[in-house]
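step=encode ok
step=design start
structure_in=
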């Protein structure tokens, strides 16, 4: 489906077209910033306001991040082609004069460059998401991830604009070296299993970002996002928590794929966004890779049981073979758990929401959407 580009929201800032390096907008306060751009302290009461571009800003994480940045007084531009994102995620932001959204693809390089030229910082979140989508559309996944990231890095490089590249815990693949450290080895399956195209393409994204940092002095940070969840996440692309909660509330069977002994760590999107906001202020983070996720581990069996209990559902668990859920060649990841020491030490960051709190929030949110 072709969606013609539109612009929503309006602008009040007079400096929106100006760009020079360092490229932060000052609100009545002048400061000298470090080599890799500006280092405003997040806890400073008069922190300079920035203009920020979020690619994929109509997605689940991007829209939360946009809201948080606006709350902090920053100006936020979003570019999103709505391939997996949704206007519903950002509708509540469109009245804010400091918010604007362009419905377009980042493959529109001319537009992307113009947008990057206006901002102080870019969060690159636009990517193919969801195991289901990746398995069904590997070609789209590979192109969207690799070409998209290359376009973003090239545009940022032109203005030496700070950029955060969102990578994924998928890059660790089925490594048995749990918990996963950023400098640990990765272990991917064969190329005949399309799932791994996602991990491989995001690894290329990471290599690209680090190469731009090394060879072009582009201030880039790579953040490996582990399973990120919370209210408003859609189950359309196969994510487990929104699926289980919907099934529980509708009294359907809870579909556990495989034998349910595989485990994950689910981090609240609020905690993830808090770290994403804070990390850009750290000079030492540029040129580095960080895990971002919680260490509270749960098996999918236990997750299903907890969703049933917390929602008071009468649903039963139904086991579905991976071959039926995804594809005949599908390989799942038995355990995925981050070592989050590196980002914890950098930011003094730790997740504030545990799994039961997250599940309760998701259940409450889904319930509030149901007709009485
Ligand atoms: N899963 C499941 N039932 C579902 C959706 C997912 O059992 O309806 C499993 C999936 O096979 C995986 C885990 O839940 O082992 C997490 O899946 P998700 O797609 O949320 O994220 P992943 O960690 O696989 O990227």
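sequence_out=
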């Amino acid at each position: 489906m072709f969606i013609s580009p539109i612009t929503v929201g309006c602008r009040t800032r007079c400096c929106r077209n100006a760009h020079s390096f360092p490229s932060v907008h000052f609100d009545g306060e002048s400061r000298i910033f470090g080599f890799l751009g500006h280092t405003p302290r997040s806890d400073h009461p008069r922190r300079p306001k920035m203009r920020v571009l979020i690619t994929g800003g109509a997605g689940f994480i991007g829209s939360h991040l946009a809201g948080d940045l606006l709350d902090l007084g920053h100006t936020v531009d979003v570019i999103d082609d709505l391939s997996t994102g949704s206007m519903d995620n950002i509708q509540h932001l469109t009245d804010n004069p400091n918010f604007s959204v362009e419905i377009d693809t980042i493959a529109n390089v001319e537009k992307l460059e113009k947008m990057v030229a206006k901002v102080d910082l870019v969060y690159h979140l636009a990517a193919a998401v969801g195991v289901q989508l990746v398995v069904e559309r590997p070609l789209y996944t590979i192109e969207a991830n690799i070409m998209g990231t290359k376009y973003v890095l090239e545009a940022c490089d032109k203005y030496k604009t700070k950029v955060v590249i969102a990578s994924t815990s998928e890059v660790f693949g089925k490594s048995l070296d749990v918990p996963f450290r950023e400098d640990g080895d990765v272990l991917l399956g064969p190329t005949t299993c399309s799932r791994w195209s996602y991990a491989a393409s995001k690894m290329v994204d990471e290599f690209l970002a680090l190469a731009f940092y090394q060879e072009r002095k582009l201030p880039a940070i790579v953040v490996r996002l582990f399973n990120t969840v919370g209210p408003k996440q859609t189950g359309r692309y196969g994510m487990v928590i929104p699926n289980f909660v919907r099934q529980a509330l509708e009294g359907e069977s809870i579909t556990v794929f495989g034998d349910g002994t595989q485990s994950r760590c689910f981090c609240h999107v609020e905690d993830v966004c808090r770290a994403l906001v804070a990390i850009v202020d750290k000079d030492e983070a540029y040129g580095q890779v960080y895990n971002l996720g919680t260490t509270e581990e749960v098996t999918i069996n236990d997750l299903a049981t907890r969703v049933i209990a917390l929602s008071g559902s009468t649903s039963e668990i139904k086991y579905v073979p991976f071959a039926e859920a995804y594809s005949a060649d599908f390989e799942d990841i038995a355990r995925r758990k981050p070592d989050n020491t590196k980002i914890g030490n950098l930011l003094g960051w730790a997740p504030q929401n545990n799994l039961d709190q997250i599940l309760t929030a998701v259940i409450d949110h889904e319930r509030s959407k149901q007709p009485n």
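step=design ok
step=annotate ok -> The chain is about 35% helix and 15% strand.
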